[in-house]
């Protein structure tokens, strides 16, 4: 475990209206879409037919998406293309837009898969492409938020590349802005933290697990709410500008955060 590298690389928000959520993120975070399976021409992103393996994956799950870089990390927005898509059931359970996935980049996938299976996690799916491989753990076992381990096969892991961002995006090499962490609200945060620790191979310290880049924290969910990806920390933002933009769009705000897609985005 000591030689394994793992970093928070992407979070995913499930939305009823993909374009409205993308527009909110553009305004609040200053992030611009660079790639997706949706028609993003309104943002100056030309449509390119996805590779057959990628098209089959999104068709199977009834999804379209948009990828927005935050420095060299990413926020993904997904939305359903048909009423029987799994994400529709997820949104119904949550009562609206909500955080969907916590995605980490690793430099070897097998150790994480072995630990997860040994700990009794169910595998919800994943992708196995020539350029990229990932493993999705079932949210029924991870406290309501899907945990995904992702391995870059193009270039070298941790060289900055990220296959889901499409063929034209290039890493900037800047340290900010960046995803600095995320918070899971859970009915039993101690139990969920132990489960994540078993799969990730990192200890729980207080109520958090520290990664090589970023962290995940575990807090108690409010009364009457289920487990969820409640907040995402973003380093390097202009907090005043973020809050002003959120208020102009009529979004919910608090002292250090704005709520988009059911998730609090915190300027840290």
TrEMBL record:
Superkingdom assignment: Bacteria
InterPro entries linked: Glyas_Bleomycin-R_OHBP_Dase, Glyoxalase-like_dom
SUPFAM superfamilies assigned to the protein according to its UniProt record, in alphabetical order: Glyoxalase/Bleomycin resistance protein/Dihydroxybiphenyl dioxygenase
Domain Glyoxalase-like: 11-198
Pfam family, one: Glyoxalase_3
UniProt name for this protein: Glyoxalase-like domain-containing protein
The organism's taxonomic lineage, starting at the top: Bacteria, Pseudomonadati, Pseudomonadota, Alphaproteobacteria, Hyphomicrobiales
């Amino acid at each position: 475990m000591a030689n394994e590298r793992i970093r928070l690389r992407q979070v995913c928000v499930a939305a009823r209206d993909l374009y409205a959520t993308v527009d909110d993120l553009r305004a609040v975070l200053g992030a611009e879409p660079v790639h997706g399976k949706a028609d993003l021409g309104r943002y100056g992103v030309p449509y390119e037919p996805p590779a057959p393996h990628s098209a089959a994956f999104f068709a199977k799950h009834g999804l379209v998406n948009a990828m927005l870089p935050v420095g060299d990390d990413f926020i993904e927005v997904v939305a359903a293309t048909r009423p029987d898509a799994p994400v529709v059931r997820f949104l119904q359970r949550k009562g609206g837009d909500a955080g969907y996935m916590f995605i980490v980049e690793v430099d070897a996938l097998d150790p994480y898969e072995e630990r997860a299976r040994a700990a009794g996690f169910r595998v919800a799916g994943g992708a196995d492409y020539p350029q990229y491989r990932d493993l999705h753990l079932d949210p029924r076992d991870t406290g309501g938020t899907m945990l995904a381990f992702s391995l870059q096969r193009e270039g070298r892991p941790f060289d900055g590349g990220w296959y889901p961002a499409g063929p034209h995006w290039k890493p900037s090499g800047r340290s900010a802005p960046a995803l600095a962490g995320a918070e899971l609200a859970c009915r039993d945060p101690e139990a969920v933290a132990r489960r994540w620790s078993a799969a990730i191979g990192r200890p729980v310290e207080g109520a958090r697990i520290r990664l090589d880049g970023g962290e995940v924290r575990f807090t108690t969910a409010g009364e009457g709410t289920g487990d969820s990806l409640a907040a995402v920390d973003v380093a390097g933002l202009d907090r005043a500008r973020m809050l002003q933009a959120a208020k102009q769009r009529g979004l919910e705000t608090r002292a250090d955060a704005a709520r988009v897609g059911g998730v609090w985005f915190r300027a840290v």
